[in-house]
Design goal:
By secondary structure, this protein is mostly helical. The chain is built from seven helices and three strands. Helices cover 49% and strands 4% of the residues. Helix 2 packs across helix 5. It is globular and about 50 Å long.
Length: 185
């Protein structure tokens, strides 16, 4: 076999090992269980009827804009049930409507704060549906940190307007030639 084939297999094996570690670990399991346990109370406090549909993301966007006034406010309130359950809810909408799955780094790096946060990503079995247009990243599956979507909503000059949480769902269309640019912190 050529060196090129071996290099490809090694890169694939490394990517698969990382994905598996991020998919199945105590940090992620604990975070998911905590948010699921909090959801009923959160749902009641925020008007009820949260149904995990795409359209409900517009309602979530309005809720975040109503309760969070700035980037600093978002980060100050990041670990509150209001924000954590909202993040879980957004990720669950992605999972239920686009087939993504939760991931979280089991050993986050202090130098990379986003590695401490949960995210959703297309399953590893669909890795080959997404190619990096520039040919740099081996794993070009789109991923979303729900907190990042909230960050876009409260910036002084938002990068996207109304409907931006729902528009994130468009990122999961495979093989559009731009999937390599979709990674969001």
């Amino acid at each position: 076999m050529s060196d090129e084939i071996w290099d490809h297999e090694d890169e694939y094996a490394v990517a698969e090992r990382i994905d598996t570690a991020h998919a199945d670990n105590p940090r992620l399991a604990a975070w998911l269980a905590e948010q699921q346990d909090r959801f009923d109370g959160w749902n009641h406090r925020h008007g009820g009827g949260w149904d995990f549909t795409e359209r409900s993301l517009d309602r979530m966007e309005a809720l975040v804009r109503e309760h969070v006034t700035s980037v600093d406010d978002l980060f100050a309130r990041e670990h509150t049930p209001m924000i954590q359950v909202a993040c879980w809810y957004v990720g669950e909408v992605h999972n239920r409507t686009r087939g993504t799955e939760w991931r979280m780094d089991p050993e986050p790096a202090d130098t990379h704060p986003w590695s401490k946060r949960p995210y959703v990503i297309v399953p590893f079995t669909r890795l080959h549906e997404y190619e990096d247009a520039e040919g740099i990243d081996y794993d070009a599956r789109p991923q979303h940190h729900p907190l990042s979507g909230f960050l876009d909503l409260v910036r002084e000059q938002p990068t996207s307007g109304a409907g931006s949480l729902r528009s994130e769902l468009d990122d999961y269309e495979p093989d559009t030639g731009t999937s390599g640019t979709r990674h969001r912190p």
